[in-house]
């Protein structure tokens, strides 16, 4: 099942890249494996997946222990400050930084553990009350503040688009995030690059790619419907 799902996702990514006149190599697929057992991650690995996205620290650390060290892990969920110390040096990218206090903790812990941490700033483009992330208006100030911290590096932006029936409805959200990243890039802030745009999930990753996503986070489209009984 995972193999067939991955083939379909891959085909969809290729087609979206073609429609947008982009290269397949411009888009990185993050396999969002949260709630799924290690056996499913192994199955995805056998199909060539090397990057997994998780949203809980404990769950990610447990899976890491059972799987090869060559894999890349991305923290995509809301991160509590008291958990930061457990993941330093163990994640390639944190997608979900939305406050200066969290960024300060990451920089401090990275320094303590002799490492550096790459992050994205999470933007709540649609300003949904139920979601984490800062508003578009708050972005520049927060990014300027985080940029001054020594052991943390901003690589781009992330957003979680609203849940909608028709993914076309999210095109404007993706377009707005792309525009924000271009605006911020123009400011040429030290220690800030805007090469990564993490947007698009199972429902809407094709639209996100058409609008400039460089990372798509696909869970159910690869692993099937999640059960939260665990
Ligand atoms: C769960 C999750 C995803 C994947 O969602 P699907 O709809 O299953 O593809 C992507 N991004 C974040 C931040 C998530 O928490």
Describe the protein's architecture and organization.
- By secondary structure, this protein is α/β, with parallel strands linked by helices.
- It has a single domain, classed as TIM Barrel (Alpha-Beta Barrel), CATH 3.20.20.
- Helix content is 40%, strand content 18%.
- The protein has nine helices and eight strands.
- Strand 3, helix 4 (84-87) and strand 4 (93-97) form a beta-alpha-beta unit.
- The model has no long low-confidence stretch (mean pLDDT 97).
Protein topology:
Elements: H1 2-20, E1 28-32, H2 38-46, E2 51-54, H3 57-66, E3 72-75, H4 84-87, E4 93-97, H5 100-112, E5 117-122, H6 136-147, E6 152-158, H7 171-186, E7 192-198, H8 205-210, E8 215-218, H9 220-223
Parallel strand pairs: 1-2, 1-8, 2-3, 3-4, 4-5, 5-6, 6-7
This protein binds pyridoxal-5'-phosphate (PLP).
Pyridoxal-5'-phosphate binds at residues 32, 34, 55, 76-77, 160, 201-203, 217-221.
Descriptive keywords:
230 residues, alpha/beta, TIM Barrel, eight-stranded parallel sheet, 9 helices, binds pyridoxal-5'-phosphate
CATH topology (fold) name: TIM Barrel
**Looking across the biggest beta sheet, what order are the strands in?**
7-6-5-4-3-2-1-8
Encode the helix/strand succession as letters: HEHEHEHEHEHEHEHEH
The span between the termini is: 21 Å
- Which structural class do the helices and strands define? alpha/beta
User: What small molecules does this complex bind?
Assistant: pyridoxal-5'-phosphate
Kindly provide the name of the CATH class. Answer: Alpha Beta
CATH superfamily: Alanine racemase
Shape: globular
Count, helices = 9
Q: Roughly what is the average pLDDT, rounded to an integer?
A: 97
């Amino acid at each position: 099942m995972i193999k067939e799902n991955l083939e379909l996702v891959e085909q969809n990514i290729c087609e979206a890249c073609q429609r947008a006149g982009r290269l397949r190599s411009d888009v990185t697929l993050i396999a969002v494996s949260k709630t799924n057992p290690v056996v499913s991650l192994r199955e995805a690995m056998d199909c060539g997946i090397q990057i997994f996205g998780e949203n809980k620290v404990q769950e990610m650390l447990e899976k890491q222990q059972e799987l090869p060290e060559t894999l890349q892990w991305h923290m995509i969920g809301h991160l509590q400050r008291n958990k930061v110390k457990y993941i330093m040096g163990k994640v390639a990218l944190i997608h979900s930084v939305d406050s200066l206090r969290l960024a300060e903790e990451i920089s401090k812990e990275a320094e303590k553990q002799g490492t550096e941490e790459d992050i994205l700033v999470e933007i709540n483009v649609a300003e949904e009350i139920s979601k984490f992330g800062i508003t578009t208006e708050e972005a520049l100030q927060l990014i300027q503040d985080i940029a001054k911290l020594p052991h943390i590096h901003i690589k781009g932006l992330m957003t979680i688009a609203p849940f909608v029936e028709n993914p076309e409805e999210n095109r404007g959200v993706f377009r707005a995030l792309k525009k924000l990243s271009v605006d911020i890039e123009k400011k040429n802030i030290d220690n800030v690059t805007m090469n990564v745009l993490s947007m698009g999930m199972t429902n809407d990753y094709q639209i996100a790619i058409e609008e400039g996503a460089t990372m798509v986070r696909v869970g159910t489209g690869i692993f099937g419907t999640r059960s939260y009984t665990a």
